[in-house]
Amino acid sequence: MKFSWKVLVLWTLPALVIGFFFWQGTFASTPVDMTRNAANSRMTYGRFLEYLDANRISSVDFYEGGRTAIVESVDPELDNRVQRVRVDLPISAPELISKLKEKGVNFDAHPMRNDGAIWGLLGNLVFPLLLITGLFFLFRRSNNLPGGPGQAMSFGKSKARFMMEAKTGIKFDDVAGIEEAKEELQEVVTFLKQPEKFTAVGARIPKGVLLVGPPGTGKTLLAKAIAGEAGVPFFSISGSEFVEMFVGVGASRVRDLFKKAKDNAPCIVFIDEIDAVGRQRGAGIGGGNDEREQTLNQLLTEMDGFEGNTGIIIIAATNRPDVLDAALLRPGRFDRQVTVDAPDIKGRLSILAVHSRNKKLDPSVSLEAIARRTPGFTGADLSNLLNEAAILCARRRKDAITLTEIDDAVDRVVAGMEGTPLVDSKSKRLIAYHEIGHAIVGTLLKDHDPVQKVTLIPRGQAQGLTWFMPNEEQGLITRSQLKARITGALGGRAAEDVIFGRAEVTTGAGNDLQQVAGMARQMVTRFGMSDLGPLSLESQQGEVFLGRDWMSRSDYSESIASRIDSQVRGIVDECYENAKKIMRDHRIAIDRFVDLLIEKETIDGEEFRQILAEYTFVPEKPQFIPQL
Ligand code: ADP
Ligand code: MG
Ligand code: ZN
To answer: Which residues contact 178 (CB under 8 A, 6 or more apart)?
Structure first.
């Protein structure tokens, strides 16, 4: 977007010039168009004289000072039909007039038409006018566009970077399922509405509230609801908007924002993704980022610069509180942290209630059932789910949303759009074996989540999918559960290996293997679940680019590092052998499942367990059923 003005200039100028030629063409040299009413046919001068001699000409009209004429001729061979044709006359034909008189032909001369000249004049004027207005707008636009030539003069003055909503129109009733957070923030509303209540007893009103939680849990919504409940304006900007190419732009945006906010106090200033600007200073690869640091410093200065009772409350949102600069979290700045987590089953139920208000649900659909089916869904996922279901309902021309639409919408939200079905081929068979491999291992291991269904319908990136029912409310995970998950994830590759042989294994297991490696490594380095003993050897991974020091990542020696590697390898090898053994032991059942899956495309978990029980012992898995 940033440099689009250049493109604009480059493309608009040639367009204007071409337009100019075009206009000149149509207006300036408009030919005197006397043939407009005449027939399009032409007659030679010689033929015209012949006709004249044969008395077949009834009238002649001269145009263009006598250079052309429209002639009416009569054709006796065609029932004396009258024809109008054009004749180009030689310039020196003075005897023609006398001949016409002699033959008694009607003739008339018409003056040169002038409109051509007028259009020409207009055409000549239109272009410069167009060019001037065009250039005028171009310059005005490029001055306002960030990064345009005017930018160097008016750094960061661009007003469009933060948004102000005088009334958000959102109330606490629209936010559901995060009751604790709502209660905490209820107080902020009172601060804004009746500050005297607090200042009278000498309480300092907090300046900043930090909302911490994963994306889609309703942080933005909550901030808007506070503004809506308190009836104050809502200013919002995203942390990433502060971070610019030019040093100083971000800082000046912060100044702008706070100036506007002070003019409109009491109000809410909402800074989304504050981690983009508020990361630890001087961290990350390649040292600090001057621009970001300046912006952050400006933010801190502004927050210190106004007293708690000016009526501005800053709400910031992040899902990475661990990377924030400590100065931001000091008392007097974002001294309140409110956690906004993904909702539990009760929370999901109440969020579903909010979002189903304007949807038509079939009486057979209970919101409880949907809440049960959607562990791990955030508020945004649930709202998306109901919307997808409504779209499917409309597409299928139903009057109300039924359980079928809900099921399909869940699949779609979790795994992406349904792709085109696979054609029958060797690779379809291979994918079927891969998925059945996951499902068999998952079903036979006592500590694995039960299979919900296996499908061969491609969705999103995946060609086939095995769905498991995660056990909700499961806070702690045991070592054998982790090993079961690793074995289950290896089930796909194990099936390929055992059935088709080493040479035929495919890239389809890439994703599985990534998960396997991650889980196995964490068992060793974070959870102390290997022969290395209960040592925590690594804190969370993946922060190198997010601002923490990258040197502190491994606090162990080279020799420990190689022992970690061999422990990880040991776990994975053991699990893989186990998965392969399960494949070899259940070959007959697997072949039957694959035929069934290719025929039906989807096998339900219950049916899967029943069929498998005909061949072998299938362990019972108690499912935790959350109470509502
Ligand atoms: P975040 O800012 O945490 O990423 P948003 O507030 O932008 O999430 O949520 C996106 C949308 O999801 C909201 O507009 C709303 O429709 C829905 N949503 C999320 N959480 C909730 C909730 N707790 N209650 C009701 N709707 C929610
Ligand atoms: Mg948000
Ligand atoms: Zn797989």
So the answer is: 217, 218, 222, 340, 341, 343, 347, 379
Residues with Cβ–ion distance below 5 A, ligand 3: 492, 512
Compute, in angstroms, the gap from residue 220 CA to the centroid of ligand 2.
Answer: 4
Say yes or no: CB of residue 251 within 6 Å of ligand 1. Answer: no
pLDDT at 79: 72
Q: Which atom of ligand 1 is nearest to the CA of 221?
A: 6
Residue 71, strand partner residues:
60, 85
Q: Which CATH superfamily is domain 161-339 in?
A: P-loop containing nucleotide triphosphate hydrolases (3.40.50.300)
Instruction: Compute CA 352 distance to the chain's CA centroid, rounded to the nearest angstrom.
Output: 23
Strand ranges for 77-228 from DSSP E? 81-88, 106-109, 163-165, 208-212
**Is the Cβ–Cβ distance between 231 and 167 less than 8 Å?**
yes
- The model's pLDDT over 173-186, given as tens digits with 9 standing for 90+, comes to 999 988 888 888 88
pLDDT in tens, 367-412: 998 898 888 899 999 999 999 999 999 999 999 999 999 999 998 8
Whose C-alpha lies nearest to ligand 1, atom 6? 218
220 lines ligand 1 (CB under 6 A): yes
For 177, the token pair is 């399922």
Could you state, in order of their start, the residue ranges of all structural domains in the chain?
5-28+116-153, 39-113, 161-339, 345-414, 426-541+553-612
The class (CATH top level) of 426-541+553-612 is mainly alpha
Q: What does the block give as tokens for 374? A: 């959607």
Cα 216 to middle of ligand 1, angstroms: 5
Whether 181 lines ligand 1, by a CB cut-off of 6 Å, is: no
pLDDT tens digits, residue range 478-487?
A: 999 999 999 9
Positions marked catalytic? 435
Ligand 2 centroid to residue 314 C-alpha, Å: 15
Burial (CB count within 10 angstroms: exposed 0-12, middle 13-18, buried 19+), residue 138: middle
Q: Is 108 exposed, middle or buried (0-12, 13-18, 19+ CB in 10 A)?
A: exposed
Using CA atoms, how far apart are residues 90 and 71, in angstroms rounded to an integer? 15
- Domain 39-113 has what CATH class? alpha beta
Give the pLDDT confidence of 267-322 residue by residue, as tens digits: 999 999 888 887 766 655 555 567 778 888 888 888 887 765 578 889 999 988 88
Specify the CATH architecture of the domain 345-414.
Answer: Orthogonal Bundle (1.10)
